[in-house]
Design goal:
303 residues, alpha+beta, Arc Repressor Mutant, subunit A, two-stranded antiparallel sheet, 14 helices, 8 strands, 48% helix, 15% strand, globular
């Protein structure tokens, strides 16, 4: 990876992450999006999927207000409604796909077929541009001065010190991802780890997390197998490093769909091919791969 960002660049990146996480990174919100994508559109089905009724109603209103979900009548007498993903909600699917790829690779949890659309998940993350296997070390992080200049005044986040818990049987194919990405403080610590902010004091300065909460989250991330302590602070494990695609997918969604958001002042470039990096969770479609190979052969033959 490239040199670590400056403290101001790190702060700008965390502001952008925080704005996306405030909307998306909540256990119940993620569960609702996953259930809707899997075909559960009626309120009762969403509650049966593991989201408490009161929280389902609250989060659905939030998702409607944010433009990810639309409420539509499916019966007029009596009036009954169902919930559908909007284009913005459907654009969140690559985030879920990266979570499913990670779950299958590290937790041996097979995903629902409906979420895959007939495609096959990869074992490792790949570059969407060139199709080659990729990881965080193979992606260059380029900081843009214009983005840093646009950084708003320092924001102090308010986060819950306690975490929501859920029935262990709810969405077993996404359970570990919900534990990780349902905690906004944990996400900020992971982002810092990817930017090589590793020491306790540096993590506290970057995130503004109280010392006791930071200690709790670091212990939790170690228990989840994502971080390991070392001489220079806390390091990402292979399991933690492979979450990079989820974080990039969240950032990409937010940059395209959250209008009033401070964009992260960075550009990600896949070192191997030089293209802007986006993760790909699926193996190439065999028919598409065959057509591409045939086109290459024809081009060579015509030279």
């Amino acid at each position: 990876m490239s040199a670590p960002p400056s403290p101001r660049a790190t702060a700008a990146i965390l502001v952008a992450v925080r704005q996306a996480a405030d909307l998306l990174c909540d256990r119940w919100t993620l569960m609702l999006l996953a259930l809707l994508a899997n075909g559960a559109t009626r309120f009762a089905a969403l509650v049966d999927g593991g989201v408490p009724a009161r929280l389902a109603a609250l989060r659905l209103r939030t998702l409607e207000g944010a433009g990810l979900v639309v409420k539509l009548p499916y019966c007029l007498r009596p009036v009954r409604h169902e919930y559908r993903l909007t284009p913005a909600g459907e654009a969140f699917l690559p985030v879920l796909h990266e979570m499913l790829r990670w779950e299958a690779a590290h937790n041996a949890m097979p995903p629902p077929a409906a979420l895959l659309g007939g495609r096959t998940l990869r074992n490792v993350m790949a570059c969407a541009a060139c199709g080659a296997d990729a990881d965080a070390r193979g992606v260059a992080l380029q900081v843009t001065g214009r983005g840093i200049a646009a950084l708003p005044a320092k924001q102090r986040a308010t986060r819950r010190s306690t975490l929501d818990s859920a029935d262990g049987q709810a969405l077993p194919w996404l359970a570990a991802s919900l534990d990780i990405f349902g905690d906004k403080w944990g996400i900020e610590i992971l982002v810092c780890a990817f930017m090589r902010v590793r020491r306790f004091g540096a993590l506290r300065d970057a995130t503004g997390i109280a010392a006791n909460i930071l200690s709790n989250r670091l212990e939790r991330l170690q228990a989840l197998g994502l971080l390991t302590p070392g001489g220079e602070g806390y390091w990402l494990t292979p399991r933690g490093l492979d979450l990079y695609g989820v974080l990039v997918a969240i950032q990409n969604w937010a940059d395209h769909w959250l209008v009033a958001r401070t964009r992260a002042p960075i550009r990600l470039v896949h070192r191997s091919c030089g293209a802007a990096f986006l993760p790909s969770a699926f193996l190439p479609d065999p028919a598409v791969a065959h057509a591409s190979a045939l086109a290459v052969s024809v081009n060579h033959a015509m030279r």
